[in-house]
Amino acid sequence: MICDAAVPLAPPAALSAPAPAVPGGSDVVLVVDDVPDNLAMLHDALDESGYTVLLATRGEAALQRAAQALPDIILLDALMPGMDGFEVARRLKAAPATAHIPIIFMTGLTETEHLVAALEAGGIDYVTKPIKPREVLARMGVHLGAARRARQDASQAHQARNALDAFGCASITLRAGDGRILWQTPLARELLQGWFGATGPWAPESVRDWLRRHVLAENSAGPPAPARTEPAQLNVEQGARRLTFRLHQQAGDSAGGGDWLIVMRESSDAQIIGSMGLAFGLTAREAEVLYWVVKGKINRDIGAILGASPATVKKHLERVFAKLGVETRTAAAAMALNRVRLLHPQFGG
Fold this sequence. Notes:
Elements: H1 12-16, E1 28-32, H2 36-48, E2 52-56, H3 59-69, E3 73-77, H4 85-94, E4 103-107, H5 112-120, E5 125-128, H6 133-166, E6 170-175, E7 181-184, H7 186-196, H8 205-219, E8 233-238, E9 241-250, E10 259-268, H9 270-280, H10 284-294, H11 299-306, H12 310-324, H13 329-343
Helix pairs in contact: 3-4, 9-10, 9-13, 10-12, 10-13, 11-12
InterPro entries: CheY-like_superfamily (IPR011006), Sig_transdc_resp-reg_C-effctor (IPR016032), Sig_transdc_resp-reg_receiver (IPR001789), Tscrpt_reg_LuxR_C (IPR000792), WalR-like (IPR039420), WH-like_DNA-bd_sf (IPR036388)
Organism: Verminephrobacter aporrectodeae subsp. tuberculatae
Domain HTH luxR-type: 275-340
């Protein structure tokens, strides 16, 4: 007789070791059935085919074994005493650790409503009893192959996002229709929280509006627009700091505006302000004032940025004029821009 406490048909090590630790890397199958003859037949067929087999005869034991071993696939009897297979499947799919595991139902029920119930509970497929091992193996092969490809795609996407982070770029995928963030790299999450205080699933309103404007422009009627040499870009500034959003590519279908991969980069012009100070012998505050003059800001705006009065800004600017040997804002800005561009070609007014 087979029992959950000690299942003699499976190697003892296979009962407790998680799937990645199985010698040889064979796929791990959890078979759940309350009929010993069914377990024996499936165990032998799966074992001969190179699978590592775990067994359970009750729903509670199946949940425990799945959480411990994280099998690659589960063969699950639909009708069992106590907790039936439908409830087992629902609980497995509700748990983040086991939600990804494909479930194939084994059922003697052939009514359409029962088969639909199996799929609605989280099953990916079903086989009908009496069990035919060759059919089970064929179905398993299809779903294990699909699961491997999904894991590989997820791994490649994860590596790509990590690569963007490694180069100082954060990335998010954003749904244009409602502004929901579908995924984000750790650096993107950190930047959004630091700049916008955003911790939820929605992008900041300014980013959502910018993306919607872009999508509307792309989808608007009329003659084709000339090819864009630069991707659409949004700049958010805080003092001399800047957070740039660039559209990289459409990451999903175009329904509702589509899903878009957006790359973010944080930069600061603090080094440029320092270069201005060194080039013209300015104090730190004078260099900041000149920086914002180059940016086209008036004294009132500069005062608001630096936390000073317009009168104080005017006094700093008079000293800047004297040190540069100029008399107007335009001349000061032109001289500063020409000098700084020699050291920072990317800097513009």
